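Backbones bend. Shown next:

***
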Amino acid sequence: MNVSIGFLITLIGLLCTATGVVLGLLTFNRNRDKDMRNDASESAVIRTKLDNINQGVESIRIDIKANEKQVAALNERVVRVEESSKQAHRRIDSIELKGEI
């Protein structure tokens, strides 16, 4: 009798151990799948944010190029205005020397 009870206890112990191993593996697989989904969604969010940042940077570059063109145009105009004012001052100086003022 003692042998059959010992065998039964050993068998129950082995069944519990096997059940625990199976449940552990199932839980591991389930959590691994969840982690993979979470990683994929986080990766998608990061890519989206990086795309938005990239678009913002491109927009800033376009604005800077437009501003550079405007500054170049203004520089040309300033040079023309300076030349024109020099000529005007020369004429004013020549008129003052003649005594017309």
